[in-house]
Amino acid sequence: MTDELVNVSFESEWMNLAPWVDRPDIDLDSFANELGISAEIISLLQSWRRDGFVIIEKGVDESDIDKFSSELDQFFLNFSDYVISMEVRGRQTWSRAEHSSIVSEVGVKFNNLHVASGFAGSLCLSPKIIRFLSSIFLCPPVPMQSLTFIKGSQQRTHIDFPYVNRQRRLPQMVAAWIALEDVHEESGPLAYFKGGHLPTLTGFFDWGNGNLTSVAGSNKRNSNDFADYLESKMKEAKLAPVMFLPKKGDVLIWHANLPHLGLPIRNVDLTRRSFVTHYTGLFDYPERWVSASDCDSAGYSKNGGLIFEYPYDQGKKNNKFDSWGQIETDQAGFRYWLSEYRNRLQER
Ligand SMILES: O=C(O)CCC(=O)C(=O)O
Ligand SMILES: [Fe+2]
Known about the structure:
Blueprint: H1 3-17, H2 28-34, H3 39-51, E1 53-56, H4 62-77, E2 85-88, E3 91-94, E4 108-111, H5 118-124, H6 127-137, E5 141-149, E6 174-179, E7 190-192, H7 199-202, H8 223-236, E8 242-243, E9 251-255, E10 260-262, E11 274-281, H9 295-298, E12 299-302, E13 305-308, H10 331-347
Antiparallel strand pairs: 1-9, 2-3, 2-4, 4-5, 5-11, 6-9, 6-11, 7-8, 7-10, 12-13
The structure holds 2-oxoglutaric acid and fe (ii) ion.
Fe (ii) ion binds at residues 158, 160, 260.
């Protein structure tokens, strides 16, 4: 079988599982109108379909950012008191095992602070983000994972779905990047390939044995091979990376198949605080990440989005900041959607 044939079958499979807005056979305006989606969101969906991303200026509340940012500062002062999962240049570790000075180094990211901080949770469930994502998933958006950066990532060109792939249908994933401060162009900004999200342009990278996703330990190819592959695909499509220089509070939302990268840092003294969340729709959220225990301890709802606490995190010590459990949530809404989720699982 040639690469070409493999790609054609992946492409039709991808389209069958993709959110409605990706399907070229659906008339965007009439479908969205039937669903009662607002004109403002319809116009975002049009850019989304064409470009594979949208930017929402002042997409989140600045006071939520200030609260999360000062909570981060407190955390950095008391680093070893916490057991917060983090990655240092590819190595998985915990805050307790590291010295706090590591936060000023390059190549550090904190995992899943949306389940440590109520303020981080509020940020990723901000109304403007949730409204847009709901119109894509047609059900409540749910974070699957989040990453908090203090400096630029310098991560080479990639697409997220090979790495974020626990959702039931692979294409049902969207990422949102929130600027926690104004981004300086020497700090290693994020960049993206406008319009590069179309599978006809990217093809599907084979990680080995026909795998579309990166399977730790068993890949024949690595993230550098992936970057080389995508960069040549983007060159063929005559697309160049667009630098994202947001102001604090601006949000970039990108498609599961949009190539993007962290540009090289030109001034290592500069921070680039940002908070990225990868979401899926409720009914694609993996069952093993929903606690079987009673409703209220499984998570919460806010602004029409849901956050589940990971079952394997529950009951652990020192993995929460003070704001966890301190924000206003909609538990009646949460119980409703959790029971819808459980009913749907039984029907499967
Ligand atoms: O912020 C960056 O530099 C890259 C982040 C990213 O690629 C991601 O979180 O998926
Ligand atoms: Fe990414």
